[in-house]
Amino acid sequence: MSRDVAVLGAGMHAWGKWGRSFIEYGTIAARKALGDAGVDWRDVQSIVGADTVRGGYPGYVAGATFAKALGWQGARVTSVYAACASGAQAINTARTQILAGLADVVLVVGADAAPKGFFRPAGGDRQDDPDWLRFRVLGATNPAYFGLYARRRMALHGDTLEDFAQVKVKNAASGALNPYARYRKTVTADEVAASAVVADPLRLLDICATSDGAAALVLTSMEFARRHGQADPVRIRAVSTVTPQYPQTVLDLPDIATDSAAAVEAPGRTFRASIAHAAYEEAGIGPEELSLAEVYDLSTALELQWYEDLGLCGEGEGAKLLREGATSPGGRVPVNSSGGLASFGEAVPAQAIAQVCELTWQLRGAAGERQVEGARVGITANQGLFGHGSAVVAVR
Predict the structure, then answer these.
(1) Residue 1's pLDDT band (cuts 50, 70, 90)
(2) Is the pLDDT of residue 117 over 90?
(3) Distance CA 280, CA 382 (A)
């Protein structure tokens, strides 16, 4: 029995700092996705919103917020929060409803209006909240963690500042071709090196910004897609939302200590590697079958880590893969053909949905100058705080 669902429509609002409500961004993305699918809003049977904690009560109930903005029409509604993985959790919720026969047409929307500067915890004192504690006890902003992880790669695998800079160079070149990207300018390795140090060893251009933006998808049953004249649509074949396994021996924010492996043997895979593995298992594919990947490049160093976690190369070989050009446009498995977070910045509830938008356009052969030739299979990879991981496999 096939567990595929069709991606009939994809739509985005450009990333940037627009100074308007996330509701406006999300509504625009939703209407674009509906137009792309050729589906009327009144025909949508369910809407799933990826939440933003920065939007007050409307952000916490994003599904209902977008349903109201588009016009009440009786659809069932769901709101989902999973930190940076919120968008993929929303996709998974929509997919589950379709496969359960509860709906034929589901709209998924994520949007954010991010603050300037670093993200911070929600307001209030919560001494049992690990995210609150890491700011109060360590003063560890996200870039501080990115810097520590970069140092770890340098110490363990010999990665260099030049390797990190080349990730930015690669992604900026792709982002310059993407009309939805916030930063549409190529950069050189020298420009990365000359940018200000934010969290040693990472420079400003090694770290993603915080952004406003939105993305939306129209997902349907395969039967509806065929009735709608789409005999061979892009299909979502797997969604992984697995959690970590005890013990965790690699530090992952917001937790500020690892589990002990003194009495219990560590799992064979790290958390991030297990996210991709579960997606491959469900889809019945391996990394060797990928045409492209979209990964959550919060920093240049973290993109290199995703190469290894996706199984594109062995442990410690991420920088080598980059140097060989395998992850560049025209390479064996182009990574972040969209431009990645390096070009977009974080609009947290939207980003995992935006990754699937990029896969959709690539698998349709509709990505313009960014097109990966012959793209047939793509994967996304994403990680949110509190043990939220996500990977989506899309095929054509």
Answers:
(1) low
(2) no
(3) 15
Rounded Cα gap, residues 396 and 377, in angstroms = 7
- Helical (H) or strand (E) element with 86: helix 86-99
Q: What pLDDT sits at residue 107?
A: 99
Residue bearing tokens 């509709």: 366
Helix/strand/coil for 62? helix
Of 128-132, 133-137, 237-241, give the range with the top mean pLDDT. 237-241
At 306 the three-state DSSP class reads: helix
Cβ neighbours of residue 364 under 8 Å, at least 6 residues apart?
234, 396
Locus of tokens 């030739």: 373
Give 115 or 31, the one with higher predicted confidence. 31
pLDDT over 60 at 381, yes or no? yes
Q: Which residues contact 367 (CB under 8 A, 6 or more apart)?
A: 337, 358, 361
Query: Is the pTM here over 0.90, yes or no?
Result: yes
- pLDDT of the residue at 260: 83
With b for 16 or more beta-carbon neighbours within 10 A and e for fewer, the 357-377 pattern comes to bbbbbbbbeebeebbbeebeb
Eight-state DSSP code of residue 134: I
By three-state DSSP, how is residue 315 classified?
coil
Residue 253 is which amino acid? L
123, pLDDT greater than 80: no
Query: Strands 212-220, 202-203: parallel, antiparallel or unpaired by DSSP?
Result: unpaired
Sign, CA torsion 54/55/61/67:
negative
Strands annotated E in the chain: 5-16, 46-50, 76-80, 105-113, 197-199, 202-203, 212-220, 234-240, 292-295, 377-384, 388-395
* Whole-number Cα distances in Å, 209 to 16, 129, 142, 180: 10, 25, 11, 15
Residue reference for tokens 């980059």: 322
